[in-house]
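hey so u asked for the seq, here:
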Amino acid sequence: MGHFSPGVRLGVDVGKVRVGVAVCDPDAILATPLVTLARDLASDDDDRVPADIAELARLVELHGSVEVVVGLPVNLAGAHGPAAIHTKAYAARLADVVAPIPVTLTDERMSTVVATRRLSERGVRGKRQRAVVDQAAAVEILQSWLDAQRRRTR
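ran it, structure tokens below
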């Protein structure tokens, strides 16, 4: 395992309708919200790169990202359901496009729940909440992953 290298990472929360994106600083300490992308639901036999994946690739380049961390939804039993399978396929497609930048899957058991709750507590509701909750979930995914990396290397 060894030393956790610094560098900008993107955190990605893949939803059926939207993709939340977060970014961390070059020291890989703090995750912040970046953008919410609309899913481009191209048919699977379509050869063109979906617009959301193309935009993620552009963001990787723009921010000089060294890694992309994608939240893998697992149900509370920990089994990999349809959402997880869907996310793995998305991550694989993204990995093809951003190669050689690695795409890492991380267990996203509670991030959306936590993010939604935090926003509700702050009184962010309705349409505006839906727009930012995906980014907030991406922040949770990336932040918990960064914290875990730092704990491992101490």
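The mean pLDDT is 85. The beta strands are 9-14, 18-24, 31-38, 67-72, 103-107.
lmk if thats what u needed
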